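hey can u check if this looks right to u? its 100 residues, i copy pasted from the old doc so theres a chance i mangled smth
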Amino acid sequence: MPYEGWGLWREADGRILACGQSALEGDLVGLYDIFTEPTVRGQGLAQWLCAALLARALGRGARRAYLQVDAGNAPARAAYRRLGFTDAYPYHYRAPEGER
């Protein structure tokens, strides 16, 4: 399966705690739209989710992975470093003035 999306939610109320998706093309997998609910950030949920997505992609033939993260998002960048990611080039989101 080239695309896969996962979500982690709290059973008690069905609230999404973290979510993300992966896209596999040949031996390359990209991670996209990784999100953690602000009230549960810092608990390792996104890191666990990314590790699971990467492991599943590895089992489907992935040998290289990539993602994009805002240069100013230090907590996410730290989590991705723990997963073995390094910077290939700087990245930032563009938005009209006043919308960031």
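DSSP finds two helices and four strands in the chain.
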